[in-house]
Amino acid sequence: MASIPKIPLRRDGKMHIVIIGASAAGLSALEKLRKLDADCRITVISQDAARPYSRVLIPYYLSGKTGWDNLFIRDPNYFESLNCSHISGTVSGLEPQTKTLTLKGGQTVQYDRLLITTGSSPAKPPIAGIDGDNIHHMWTLKDIELLAPLYESARKMVVLGSGFVSLQAAWAGVQRGLEVTVIEILPRIMPLVLDHKASELLGARMKAKGVTLHLEAASRAIEHTANGSLLVHRASHKPIEADFMVVGTGVRPNVDFLTGSGIEMGRGILVNRRMETSLPDVYAAGDVAQGPTIFGPERTIHALWPTAVEMGAVAGENLAGKKNGYQGSLNMNVTQMFDLTVASMGKFQDGDGDEVWVDQALPQGSYLKIVLQDHTPIGGVAAGGSELVATLGILRPLIREKVRLRPGRCNLQSMWAQALARHHEAFAKTAG
């Protein structure tokens, strides 16, 4: 790592900490930092002029289940209440030698310590015509403003992709009474989040709700007709007509502004357990950070709101001068759509040598699978009623603490009893 000179503290003698981004990770870091250090100077830079909002709530707004004001998760005077400056702008460059950020428009901001929580942005597949009118992502407040009139007045929509965001967009369309078609290039829906059985259950529920589902379907081109509608062309198939399209085919970390900074990158910004990057006094957290997991030294990106909150809190502690490490992320995806709750956690795709428990006592149409290695749970997947989320909640500490379970079919009471016993044993040792 290159030797970079330490820039003196600002003239007022106070540490100046800059946070880029104001979503889950940035807010978590800011609040933790301010609890630990009431005196340092803090500047938050975010692209949105409005106060912080939750991307998770966007589908509920589009479906008409919640109002505009409910999208915002902090008060209008949030930054002022934390004695924090806020700049609405986009960072275009980082110069670590002088600890200087450059914003689009030429403004510069210097820092003593920096946290990058710039998140991710939707990726567009290379399909002819995908940049035309009435084709949108479902990601930002600007996207909502463009999509809301279409959800209210259109008749047909096409959703490209079948991840969480895509299917939430489709479910919002169903609730608005639209004719919804989902196009997925792979053989099953939500392939990165659900196993085959859970995908089948969700797919069946979608079809029962009126969704037309095309699997193993590659879109070749999108034609924009004279009347403003779309025709989605596929090889050897009749074109699909729609009034508008929502594209949800994956995301990419927002790291373009770091080109030339020398920061070490993988798929995202590589961080250690303290959320430190390869640059001195520069930290990263959330969707942009590729960090440790509970399963070992390999670092990955878990682009999930809870993970971003956890990483942000650790980053906030270390920005304040602590030396605390992150236990590691454990992916957990949960959503309710098409009147079905689907969830997964950890390593839920079983492989050779894994032990698999399937709860045979559940009613038809419900499914719960737990995957173990050496009698130790490593993951699970569920589809059915909302109570199954509580089951995976029980599983979460067992995975984190590597609790060995008795062999046999899935017995939730046994799992819970063993978890409690493990906690009691640990508490007794601590008290002793």
Low-confidence stretches: 1-9, 426-432
Q: Enumerate how many helices there are, as a single number.
A: 9
Summed over residues and divided by their number, the pLDDT gives a mean of: 91
Query: What's the end-to-end separation, in Å?
Result: 44 Å
Q: Radius of gyration, rounded?
A: 23 Å
Strand content: 25-35%
In short:
The chain contains nine helices and 26 strands. The protein is an alpha/beta fold.
What does this structure look like?
- It is a single chain.
- This protein has 432 residues and is α/β, with parallel strands linked by helices.
- It has nine helices and 26 strands.
- The strands form seven sheets. It has a five-stranded parallel beta sheet with strand order 3-2-1-7-19, covered by helices on one side. Strands 9-16-10-11-12 form a five-stranded parallel beta sheet, covered by helices on one side.
- Helix 5 links the parallel strand 10 (156-160) and strand 11.
- The protein is globular.
- The two termini are 44 Å apart.
Please supply descriptive tags for the structure shown above.
432 residues, alpha/beta, 25% helix, five-stranded parallel sheet, disordered C terminus
SSE inventory with pairings:
Elements: E1 16-20, H1 24-36, E2 41-46, H2 58-62, H3 78-81, E3 85-88, E4 91-95, E5 100-103, E6 108-110, E7 113-116, E8 120-122, E9 135-136, H4 141-153, E10 156-160, H5 164-175, E11 179-183, H6 196-208, E12 212-214, E13 219-224, E14 230-234, E15 240-242, E16 244-247, E17 251-253, E18 269-270, E19 282-284, E20 289-293, E21 296-300, H7 305-319, E22 332-337, E23 340-346, E24 355-358, E25 367-373, E26 376-384, H8 387-401, H9 412-431
Helix pairs in contact: 1-7, 8-9
